[in-house]
Amino acid sequence: MNLRVLLVDDSLADQRALRRALEKDPEAEWEVEQVSSAEEALERLRHPPLPDALVLDFHLPGMDGVTLLRTLREQCGERMPAVVVFTGSGSERVAVEAMKSGAHDYLLKDGFSPERLRHSLHNAVDAVRMARELEEGRRQTERAERAAREALAVRDEFFAIATHDLKGPLQSMLLSTQLLRRHLPAESRTPGVESRLEQILRGAQRMGELIDHFLEVTRGGERPLRREPMDLFALIRAKVRDLGPLGSTHPVHMHVEGSDFQGFWDVASLERVLDNLLGNAVKYSPRGGSIDVWLSEESPGPEGWIRLCVQDQGMGIPAADLPHIFERFRRGRNVAPVISGSGVGLASAHRLVALHGGTLTVESEEGKGASFIVRLPRGLGVREASSEQSA
């Protein structure tokens, strides 16, 4: 290790003793510079390279060591080297003054030993380096936080613009569909056409709600749950019915065990959960791969639990990815780049289920499909909730 030291002492004998002590340092190669006055020291420290350490005599002609230290702190600022005060006479008051003014150690010439000097200098240099590293770390953290805040501001502005631009054509789609539905000739009003138009309207309305929610989250966080009595079976059946046109490529089978699927939940949130789980089942399944939706009562009564399982025969999830599958921006490593996705859907679904006091888990093996299991507490009983709302 190469280190540079400036000896500030008006005694030639002391300068020679200090130089010899540093020349015999087994841990460092010292480049020694010498000056005899405070004024010379100040002039030297105006020019690079700055020394790593100063050995400073307290009693100097003209300016004493404490005054020099204070002047050096103003002149060098954060570049202030490590300082060890070295003096032939002193007191506790002088030592305290020196340490308060920026010295790292205080040595008396009467008790001087080469080992003690070297040890003191190494400790002082290490302390300065550590302080600089900590300060640099703090500054890097501040820069990173500032950059993150700026990036979030840019992101929020982009999302605001993007969502506004998305809602324009979406509103046009809604109005056009409603107009088409209103002016459709009687001979064309078959059940199939009515059903398809209804699906377009519901899908467009749902997309508008998702855009609003997305913008709401980016601006200020997740909205609170709006619990109300609802029938989970009816919601799931409607979602499965919407997948009907995919029957030739991804047949969907619904299995129901039980008869009471009433609960006190946030409808919009559970719609998002179902859209994500069913959408992923279709997205990651091969053509012809069936999707099974299981709905069952785990326990009856208003305090019971409902279990929902969405099972596909798709590519499955690698074992290494399973612990992270509900983290934001994480996708299975076996997902091809051509398959669209942002890696936020499952994280959002997991959070929404957790807000209901439930759980969302996964069972999967690569190449053998995946099963996503939602367990939901019914929450307040429907009768109790209705009475609370009417009150």
From TrEMBL:
Response regulatory domain location: 4-124
One Pfam family recorded for the sequence: HATPase_c
Domain Histidine kinase stretches: 161-380
Keywords: Kinase, Phosphoprotein, Transferase
Gene Ontology MF terms in the entry: kinase activity
EC number(s) stated in the UniProt entry for this protein: 2.7.13.3
InterPro entries per the UniProt record, alphabetical: CheY-like_superfamily, HATPase_C_sf, HATPase_dom, His_kinase_dom, HisK_dim/P_dom, HisK_dim/P_sf, Sig_transdc_His_kin-like_C, Sig_transdc_resp-reg_receiver
Gene3D superfamilies xref list: 1.10.287.130, 3.40.50.2300, Histidine kinase-like ATPase, C-terminal domain
Catalytic activity: ATP + protein L-histidine = ADP + protein N-phospho-L-histidine
4-aspartylphosphate found at: 57
Name used for this protein in its record: histidine kinase
Organism per entry: Archangium minus
